[in-house]
Task: inverse folding
């Protein structure tokens, strides 16, 4: 794979099915990702990696005085974002969608008074460059919130070796194409290194067992869909054979019906300020 191919690769692809999955994922994680966001006083917010507009819609719903400028590299995703947002009449006139690389934003310095990034740095070649660009575009006093994966935390019970083998291949491939499935743990260092101040991090954890059987069932279904969204790419690249994919499906089906199943996963949300 060439350097250019690695830079433009995306493990999950841009199919209509993947676009719909991203929209559902935002709703599934809304109560955790959008908990107590510090944008009440913001009026012009930069959303880097807006994808299909799912997070954009939530931000506009939570903050009625906000205008969101969403940036994404994928023209297909931006077209889907426009269609999704048009279905919500109350978003009219409150968003702008821009096709741009996150590493070379097209905005003037100090153009925004807030920024939001959600599961985007795991897919970029140079997270420091993205965060440096975000900082350049923010006015003094602006707050940024960055949510990112920490894929080493994934655990399911009953023990599922095919699922874990697939997960390791999933992460290895993401590293190979220029992403970082463990970037969440590095957010504090990354934000501080590019000049953000008052950096804080919070580990957000899903530990679902018999105490939340309904939520556990829903989350296992969501997680299965997330894993399978990368199956075609992993098989084509030779990272996993078909029997591992089928083994993972069988294991997750068993986990989903086990009365004592456990699901565990953590991601990291960082917050910082421009001084």
Result:
């Amino acid at each position: 794979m060439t350097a250019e191919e690695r830079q433009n690769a995306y493990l999950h692809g841009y199919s209509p099915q993947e676009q719909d999955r991203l929209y559902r994922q935002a709703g599934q994680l809304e109560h955790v990702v959008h908990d107590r966001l510090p944008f009440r006083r913001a009026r012009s917010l930069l959303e880097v990696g807006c994808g299909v507009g799912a997070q954009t819609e939530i931000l506009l719903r939570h903050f009625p005085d906000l205008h969101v400028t969403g940036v994404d590299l994928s023209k297909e995703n931006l077209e889907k974002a426009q269609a999704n947002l048009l279905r919500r009449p109350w978003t009219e006139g409150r968003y702008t969608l821009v096709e741009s690389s996150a590493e070379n934003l097209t905005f003037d310095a100090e153009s925004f008074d807030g920024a939001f990034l959600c599961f985007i740095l795991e897919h970029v070649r140079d997270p420091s460059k993205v965060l440096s660009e975000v900082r350049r575009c923010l006015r003094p006093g602006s707050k940024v919130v960055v949510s990112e994966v920490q894929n080493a935390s994934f655990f399911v019970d009953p023990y599922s070796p095919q699922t874990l083998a697939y997960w390791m291949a999933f992460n290895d491939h993401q590293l190979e194409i220029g992403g970082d499935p463990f970037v969440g743990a590095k957010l504090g260092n990354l934000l501080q290194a590019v000049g953000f101040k008052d950096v804080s991090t919070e580990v957000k954890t899903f530990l679902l067992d018999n105490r939340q059987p309904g939520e556990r069932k829903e989350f296992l279904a969501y997680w299965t869909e997330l894993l399978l969204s990368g199956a075609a790419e992993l098989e084509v690249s030779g990272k996993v054979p078909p029997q591992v994919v089928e083994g993972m499906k069988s294991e997750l089906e068993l986990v989903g019906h086990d009365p004592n199943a456990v699901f565990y996963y953590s991601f990291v949300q960082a917050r910082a300020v421009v001084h």
